[in-house]
Amino acid sequence: MTTLLSFLFVLGVLIFIHELGHFAVAKILGIKVEKFSLGFPPKMVGKKIGETEYCLSWIPLGGYVRMAGDNPEEELTGSPREFLSRPRWQRGLVIIAGPAMNYLFAILVVWLILSITGIGTYPAVIGEIAENSPAQSMGLKVEDRLTSINEIPVSTWDEIIESLPRDGGQVIVQVQRSGQALQLAGELPPQTSERFDQLGILPLFTTEVGEVEKDGPAWQAGIRGGDVIEAVNGIPVTRWSEMAGLIQSRPDTLIALRWRHGEQIYDDTLITRSMEVPGEDGELIAAGYVGITSKIILKRIGPFQAASESIRWTLWTTREIFQFIKGLITGRVSARMVGGPIFIAQVAGQTARQGFTVLVYFMAMLSVNLALINVLPIPVLDGGQLCILLVESLKGGSLSQRQRMIVQQVGLALIILLIIFVMFNDVDRLL
Predict the structure, then answer these.
(1) Catalytic site residue 19?
(2) Structural fold of domain 123-203
(3) Collapsing DSSP states into helix, strand and coil, what is residue 70?
(4) What is the pLDDT of residues 308-344, one digit of tens each?
(5) Start-to-end Cα distance in the chain
(6) Domain boundaries, the chain
(7) Ramachandran sector of residue 298 (left: φ over 0; alpha: ψ -120 to 50; beta: rest)
(8) Helix axes 88-117, 2-28, angle to 10 degrees
(9) Half-sphere exposure of 8 (CA within 13 A, CB side)
(10) Residues in contact with 80: Cβ distance below 8 Å, sequence separation at least 6, in sequence order
(11) Overall CATH class of domain 209-288
(12) β-bridge mates for residue 203, sequence order
């Protein structure tokens, strides 16, 4: 039930936002909108308000806005309120408004979350040092706790990032190491790396638990947020990567965990669950999980910083999606990683069990996906319609009714093939 409700909530909101974009711009431009539907026919319920019928339909895998004169099979009446009678730039605005609304929605949602909960960060403790980095040259070591950079006090990882001079230059770092205060100095290059900062360090992820998936294996064993995992199958662990590696290598397997809750030590066995994750070669492999996340520190930030972080998150998500698409084209990423409605429902259910905030982040990521997929140059999709407008502009005239029908049919065939493919992947995952 959680999975079903989460799926309907996420998909319903995203479809509504997308179609609202088309609807609102069409209305603003004075184009007659005959129907606004959430879902595909057959119609479940509907009500006509003014000149527009608002519908809720049975197939919850999309939606549509039907405007007067937007069907190439129908003859135009010559009314200025018909879609195809409008200038191409106006039709382009109506078409792009759907993906644009999805993209803006993602930015707004993440901004709201960051404004309310704050930004996630970690203690200023080094967990990894890059080879031949300034940090290595300066003598910094793993598990050093940074206390100041160029006399600016730091206690969290985001404060470290903010304190480092972006243009490089000399840096003086004070650290705590084994109870001793040390001062180290070195030269920094300008910021260029995406994985490491200029120092060449990453934070230490301890085995302290943050969120616990309700009714997941860890929850059923009694593990709660704030607990510290101390051993997996008798192997002591102090870093999240060590612990996660031991668990992920044992999908659907009975394992023994030892954890600390306050001053109490607990030992219990549980059976991991299995989820598919991309391997090094891009193929999906089974990995074990118990339903826990790493502990993070939430730092309150102002609305302007939240807006900046939201835009940065959305741009990063956009880049990752394009990298994924590029990987599919070049063959670096397995086509089996493409998911459909069943996969979306599964992930929606998993994220919902981790908390509403995690579910909303997933919805924001999916909104960016929906925006970018819709602008791909595939007929039937918004991107395909924009390509038709571009061809007509270059040609200096509109496509004939027959040409439009051929384009629509080709696009529909491609979409059907894509749906069959992703449904095959979804069913294959289930089996």
Answers:
(1) yes
(2) Pdz3 Domain (2.30.42)
(3) coil
(4) 989 989 998 998 888 888 877 887 777 777 777 777 7
(5) 20
(6) 123-203, 209-288
(7) beta
(8) 140
(9) 8
(10) 30, 86
(11) mainly beta
(12) 126
